[in-house]
Amino acid sequence: MKTPPLLRPGDEVILLSPASHPKSDQWRQGVEVLESWGLKVRLAPHALSHYFGFGGSDEERLSDFQLALDDPAIKAIFPIRGGYGSSRILDQLNFETFIKQPKWIIGFSDITAILNHVANLGIASIHGPMPHNFCQVGGDEALEMLRNLLFEGKTHIEIEADSDNRLGKAESILVGGNLSLIVHLIGSKSLPDFRGKILLLEDVGENLYHIDRMVLQLKRAGILDQLAGLIVGGFSDCKEAGLSVGKNVNQIMLEHTSGSQYPIAFEFPSGHIAQNFPLVFGKNIKLLVNANKVQLTD
């Protein structure tokens, strides 16, 4: 697995919209943050385009992302936001230059498709905050962690233990992201090999019976039986609907992982929440879950 070079002050990075278009000007605050880190920020030609709900047509979004992959001056790629649309352009992208000269891709939500696709190509990426939500109230720690990760390359996270956690430890490569997107990738070449991996899952705005259905799909596909560990991030605004399953997210996860022995960490600060801690996908990481804390270190 190749890890892209760390960033240095003066490096050029690019903002683009491979999924949905920005809903507001919040991304401009993201530019200010990146510039305060000493980075030069380029806006892709179609970064602010609208094509229905997308950040431009498929052709425009494809063109911007191909430019970002190929231009040697660009050292990191920041999708402005998620939404929907990344997987529509994945199969048309040419990653030959990117594989030879890897660079960081940072994002979450719909960007899950891209992160896992490049992990399959042997390149590490970062599941973490995007410029559209850099300045969320309460997200300062996550943003500082992202800066440290990009410039110094270290992961050291400790959080308090959750009462639903399953204790244990694991050391493996981290993969995953948005649950809806992981299920969406099943059967495609973008789906990672989960055997012996640590899986991160998060989601937003899904009814609990939808969550149950998707986690059950992971189980039926044999994915949940293959893991070395499971990290359950934020499941924001996921509520019971008219069709009730009688379980919360933690209970759904525990039911469908019953019989396995690997550690499970619940309520991890990752996903559609202010404290969206950045994590490196495609890189070996150590997970410790004990009675007092959850620890992630490289």
TrEMBL record:
Key word GTP-binding present: no
Source taxonomy: Bacteria, Pseudomonadati, Bacteroidota, Cytophagia, Cytophagales
The EC number(s) this enzyme carries: 3.4.17.13
Residues covered by the LD-carboxypeptidase N-terminal domain: 14-128
Molecular function in Gene Ontology: muramoyltetrapeptide carboxypeptidase activity; serine-type peptidase activity
Protein family according to the UniProt entry: Belongs to the peptidase S66 family.
Ranges for domain LD-carboxypeptidase C-terminal: 172-287
Primary enzyme class: hydrolase
A matching Pfam family: Peptidase_S66
InterPro entries: Carboxypeptidase_A_C_sf, Class_I_gatase-like, LdcA_N, Peptidase_S66_N, Peptidase_S66C, S66_fam
A biological process from GO: proteolysis
Domain of life according to the entry: Bacteria
Key words, A-Z: Carboxypeptidase, Hydrolase, Protease, Serine protease
Catalytic residues in the record: S109 (nucleophile), E202 (charge relay system), H272 (charge relay system)
Name this polypeptide is given: Muramoyltetrapeptide carboxypeptidase
